[in-house]
Amino acid sequence: MSKKLYHGAAYYPELWNEEAIEEDIKYMIEAGINVVRMGEFAWSIIEKEEGKIDVTFFVDMIKKLSEHSIETVMCTPTPTPPIWLTHNHPERMYVNEDGKTMIHGSRQHICTNNHYFREKAAIITKEIAKAVGDHPSVIGWQLDNEFKCHVSECMCETCKTLWHEWLENRYESIDRLNEAWGTHIWSQYYHSFDQIPQPISTPFLHNSSLKTMYQLFSYEKIAEFADEQAEIIRKYSTAPITHNSTTFFHVDNERLYKNLDFASFDTYAEQSNFAAYLFNCDLWRNFKKNRDFWIMETSPSYSASLESHAAPHPNGYLKAEAVAAYALGGEAFCYWLWRQQRTGCEQPHGSVISAWGKPTVGFENVKEVEAARKEIESIILSSKPLQAEVAITYSDVAKAFMKTEPHRNLDYRSLVVEFYEKIVKAGYHRDLLPEGADLQGYKLLFTPFIHNVTQDYRNRAEDFVKGGGIWIVGPITGGRTEHHTIHTDAALGELDQLASVETLFTYPMDGTESTGEFMGKAAPLSLWSAIFEPKEAKAVGMISEGISKGKAFMTEHSVGKGKVVMLGSLPTEESGEQLLINCLNHYAEEANVVVKTNVTEGTIVVPRQGSNEVVWVIVNMDGNGGSVTIPHDAVNGITGEFIPKGKYEINSYEHKVVSFQKN
Description:
Blueprint: E1 6-10, H1 18-31, E2 35-38, H2 43-46, H3 56-66, E3 71-75, H4 83-86, H5 115-132, E4 138-142, H6 157-171, H7 174-181, H8 208-234, E5 241-242, E6 244-245, H9 253-257, E7 264-266, H10 274-284, E8 293-297, H11 317-327, E9 330-335, H12 363-381, E10 383-385, E11 390-394, H13 396-404, H14 412-425, E12 430-434, E13 444-447, H15 455-466, E14 470-473, H16 494-499, E15 501-508, E16 515-518, E17 521-526, E18 528-534, E19 538-545, E20 552-559, E21 562-567, E22 570-571, H17 573-590, E23 603-610, E24 613-620, E25 626-630, E26 634-636, E27 642-643, E28 646-650, E29 655-661
Parallel strand pairs: 1-2, 1-9, 2-3, 3-4, 4-5, 6-7, 7-8, 8-9, 11-12, 11-13, 13-14, 14-21
Antiparallel strand pairs: 10-23, 15-18, 16-17, 16-19, 17-22, 19-20, 20-21, 23-24, 24-29, 25-28, 26-27, 26-29
Domain Glycoside hydrolase family 42 N-terminal: 11-375
Catalytic activity: Hydrolysis of terminal non-reducing beta-D-galactose residues in beta-D-galactosides
Protein name: Beta-galactosidase
């Protein structure tokens, strides 16, 4: 890829005639589009009849776009297998948890583990890679599209066989599995691996081990499919490979990106939920640590389908999104989609150009993005996001555990986003880290809502603490084994010993009218909670009201040069948010966190490191404007204007670049 910031869109030229394509290119030039993504739904165009593959249309299209300096991310068309692959072949189709077999239509209707599908997918991927892999305008590859977006774990016969093989590889003997899962419960004991069912609907709930392990099996199989496609492409192309994913989908993103070259995601958060948008940027920046991420899809105004729609963006917000993304480590900001679809289930979806070939309500905002991209490009390319000192661990494996054990409809992603939002509001530069990430350089680490803390993670976190870090553990963390069973040595397993506490009880705080106090601030407590009896630890948060009155819900314990802080319950309501922010500020100060800004709520500051300067990219995200305190004299990184220290105002959806020269 060239050293530039990309501004792009998903494009489906196979759906339009030559006149419309020429019109599209004209508008792309006007809007500043320099990259398009093509091909992910075009299997029936490339291989209309089985065995007759023709990539000519896309070869010509890539050439035509390149003549206008528009580069291409080429996709494999595997999310939409054609009718000849599925008709009269129910054994190839996806089967849901109710045992219902999908029919042809929509997308993701086939089982991606089916051997015949894999064979045909490999062939068409190879032919596309051979045809366009060496074209200089093909700057990247996207595998498939949104793995496991509309579907989750498949229950077909192919998956059943693979499931049994996966279990045997994991547990080696049926006796070991029976012991790990405790299968004598409810007479669920198995004599052989091929007796173990898939978690299809039953009269009541499945064994927790069975349900969680099946999710992890599904995670691994879809990642193997991505690995297989990437391996084929690499034989014919040196362009980097990605997949566009989100935290909503039923995948383990950390595993998915392990063998890919860069990470990308799609996001359709409304302006009112801008924290969720920032959350994705802060997470995807860390899936491929040394490679900028791409926003592969976002709407120029609103998302919609035949059955739903989101609120259109206010004017100016799209530019704020784009500047924030580029500042937070994004190399590309791309729309879904370029020209509105005239048919299908997403006809109403927001686009840059309408189905009748005219600019849409979002077009002028797209042009604003292009102006901003040009304005900040040299600054972004000559700097990189500053190392954060505050981190939150994110885990799709934890998401699987909570899907099995949601209690009252708990949703892992929503819990983490709400927790993360408090750190944003407090003005801290932060990273969301996948579970296997390196902890070097961080000072304060949060590990919330992770039922199973693996031995590897615990060892790395303990080393982090011994080196001087503060590790805040919980809530809902550590209470389950890797097999999704309860510990029998202590409520939180080895965490009890590390934190020097005895976890006396675990139970749901909701409905108990329990109140916790920390540093003089009181708040209601919620969620499934852990109640502690300190040993060598110090009780710092006490329950002042409720059935465990007088017991600790927060403790701290010095380990090496740092501390382990146990957060056994989630403070809630407005007072709970303030309690958590007090907790954050207290331990951040103790950990000597300095990468923080005094900024009003709704505005963010992204610190970046240049060769001879620190750059702050300031963006107002809520439309209300705001201010940030400039700690010492600086200059405007765009205009060169002098900026004195003190309060610096920013208008609705405005962005500013502030440069602090090194002494």
